[in-house]
Amino acid sequence: MKKIIIEGKNINNIETFYEEVNRVFMLHENWKIAQSLDAFNDMLYGSFGEIKGKEKIQLIWKDMEQNQKSLGFQTTLDFYQTKLKSPEIFNRKFVLSKIDELPNGVGLTFFEIVLEIIADHDNIILIKN
């Protein structure tokens, strides 16, 4: 089983999350994925990057607790508020509903969304380290 290691110490915000993802998953590619959860999800399907098809992957995420905080509530709120600045691209009503859900504890943080995306790929076993 192939092992891929995310170094959580390299992640402080969404931008550095994607930098780390590109560092470990796109190592042998001459291009990088965009800062997009859809692109992250597509990459995990294995059509490009380090994952080849549906091969079994052991994804070891070091310092995950630190990233739960750094990609938590405030980062997520900032993420959605930034989207509001581009109403021609993002659905304002949807983004506002996500902002409203956050303080009520029913909305997912960016970190939780990432974990949910990983969990949707049954060939990937996430090891919290």
From TrEMBL:
It holds the Pfam family Barstar. Signal peptide: none annotated. It comes from the Bacteria. Residues 1-77 form the Barstar (barnase inhibitor) domain. InterPro entries: Barstar (IPR000468), Barstar-like_sf (IPR035905). Belongs to the barstar family. SUPFAM superfamilies: Barstar-related. This is Ribonuclease inhibitor. Gene3D superfamilies: Barstar-like (3.30.370.10).
